[in-house]
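Input record (one chain):
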Amino acid sequence: MSSPEDGVNDGADIIYLPRWRPGGHRVGAHRGHDAGGLGTFRDQVSFSRLPDARRIDVRASLRDPFEGVFVRRFEARSPVETYALVDLSASMRFRGRADRRDLAGAFCTTLARSATRIGDGFGVIACDDIVRDDLYLPATRHRAAAQAAAARLGEAACEGRGAEGFLEAARRLAGRPKLIFLVSDFRWPEALIEAVFSALALHDVTPVLLADSAETEDLPAWGLVELDDLEGAGRRLVFLRPSLRRRWIAREAERVEALRRICAPFARPPFRLADRFDAEALSRHLMTT
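The corresponding structure, as predicted from the sequence alone:
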């Protein structure tokens, strides 16, 4: 199996902005909702509201006809916690033009580097039927630990027949809002998809839809195709013909549209990650949704 880095198109970082303004006392890279001594200038307030003699604005105070004293208030910069929730059910063993585990590993390795580089925490929760505690990493700003946890995903066993573990993952993430990337092929029952996104509604969630061009573009118009259900339903030999190929592609488009519709009230639109991870494409997606 190739390493996670083989699935990355370059050394670009993922650029993201949370949809909320984080709080807290730690200094980070994102616009916070609290006022602090450092950061971007926000406004001027009376000394009685912010009694900090170090920030007195002499010019504003001298201009006030009522002889008030004004203090400069700055917009604090705060960190966020960023999590990758990664599907490790059996369907993730699929390999077409790329191995899905390699794509997930490439994405998580880049996200770990991008988050820790700007002082954000990075964590991993991998799931199949249950939460995979052997791969669990609470959010950390320690770059080496974050990169090591992300790299382990590329070698993880994918044996589970479901993804119900994501419901437990959502319970573990209760508390302050977090930036969540849910990485999966989303070949789940629609009821489970809705339940998982509903459980994560407090957070800023981006679905990362793992796909492969081999599933559609590489299908022959005519011929015998052996289909293998990776989640235990066995193998089946199918005679492919143009009409069946069209229905196959249409059903796949319907599945993706259903994912988009179900997650719309709870999350950002899905980002389709197919064949090769492109950090710049993901950054554009995050900055425009």
